[in-house]
Design brief:
The protein is an all-alpha fold and about 50 residues long. It is built from two helices and no strands. Helix 1 runs antiparallel to helix 2. It comes from Halomonas citrativorans.
Length: about 50
């Protein structure tokens, strides 16, 4: 999931440099949503993970 967020971030940066503002905006929004979702799932997995 973090890989997908990074992919959309790279797409947003490239689209922004090339002047495609609509595509850059959508890609950056998707990247932000995926990153926040990754962080939430990571924190949840830290608390509910296996304990010895």
């Amino acid at each position: 999931m973090l890989g997908n967020a990074m992919l959309f971030l790279i797409i947003a940066i490239i689209a922004g440099v090339l002047g495609f503002s609509g595509i850059a905006g959508v890609a950056s929004t998707i990247a932000q949503i995926l990153f926040v979702l990754f962080l939430i799932l990571f924190v949840v997995s830290l608390f509910t993970g296996r304990r010895r």
